[in-house]
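#struct-queue
[09:14] JT: dropping the first one here, sequence first, then the structure tokens:
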Amino acid sequence: MHADLKAVIELQQLDQQVAEFTAQIEALPKQIAALQSQLDAFIHAHEERKKRLAANLKERKDLEGDIKAVQEKITRHKDQLYQVKTNDQYKAMLKEIEGEEGNIRQAEDQILEKMIEAEEIQKLVNEAAARLEGEKARVAAEIKRLENERNQDVEERTRVETRRVEVATALSSPVRALYDRIRTYRPGPAVAEVRGGLCTACNVLLRPQVYNEIRSNDAVLTCENCSRIVYYVEPPVEEPAEGAVGDRVTL
């Protein structure tokens, strides 16, 4: 294979590796932010449940206070029953007492509902409290792992970039300029394999003469359709299956 052709193939492979390492490195802040966001959401939900639990307790105390006030009011009204002078006043007082007793029952039902709600919230609070330190440790460990991977990626990218400089320097100026120009103005690969008479970058069938020239890999050639640098790789020879036609079979 022509030296420039071999070098430009490696150059593209190195550029692809640099791009992959760069993408992984640049993705790290988002990955860390996502982990931190998950932890923050967990802590926020835990704190909100604790606030709701405290509010629930206050609401129950307020209801208990309301019940006590109504009970005192009923006691006064019952004492006043002996002071009324007419049946209508007596009936009105009993009706008022009945209404106040109904208010007490309603408040007691609300307290019961809030007690059930408090039990459910308390269960969630306890579960979250038990998990909280573990979640913090898990996120911290995951962030540390990602940062270690990033450091490794930075080191690997530096190594690849150093090799890229070596390969690019060894390239002839015209081929390097051609490669850079294709990368600038063409999306996708700048160097493409030819397979089965087709350029694998644009999937256009090459003329037989051009195809034969490319197959020799003796020069840096470009696809007539997409202008990318093209090369040929000899397909692997498939070994005949056991017992295939042409094999000698001993009876």
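[09:21] JT: and here's the second one, same format:
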Amino acid sequence: MEQGIITGVLAVSLAFLNPATATHIQPASQERAEMRDYRVQEGDSLTSIAEALYGSTDFWTTIWNDNASIKSQNLIEKGDILKIRNNKPTVAEELNEGLLKKVAVKSVAKAVASPTPMQTTATPVQTVPITSSDSPKSLTDTQITYLGQCEAGMIANRNTGNGYYGAFQFSYATWKSMGTAYERADLAPIEVQIDAVQRLLQRSSIFTQFPGCARKMQASGIL
């Protein structure tokens, strides 16, 4: 009897020592310990939070991946609780398939509900040569949203004093050339800014006007 008990104890011990037979058990709290809560403040966006906590606006996609319950990258409100990684990620993630579908479905629904009217302008504009054969002449709602998030968190009144304004960070000279009724982009409604982007691409290249974000969009398969 005593010998049988000893044999059983040895067998259990060997099982834990042998990785081929042992079951690796992760502590139940390990996954939770990797994340912490962040309470959204007034004026926050996914890009501004990514820049403040991860050191780069590029990580807004990582934050959304970790908080997939967010309905839209533009819909976070003061007081919302987000899950933030304790350890800064080394590489910004692409949006997971589910979130990309969410953005696409929203864009289709918006287009059906309110089709974009044809835009006309009487203001002559200076033609800028296209520098890339891959440059689109217009952007989809999904592409516009990604571009705005990348440039300035899609915050229409963004003015940080760096000489660029609005959700798409127009320079003063470029914005004035668009012939809107607004002195600067950050003073214009988001709809006017979006229209200005679309008209700007008719005479220029997204790779010239928004080079950093255009390359990110291309790398992510958005463009």
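[09:30] RK: nice, looked through the second one.
[09:31] RK: The CA atoms of residues 151 and 168 lie 5 Å apart.
[09:31] JT: good to know. Residues 9-33, 107-133 have pLDDT under 50 and may be disordered.
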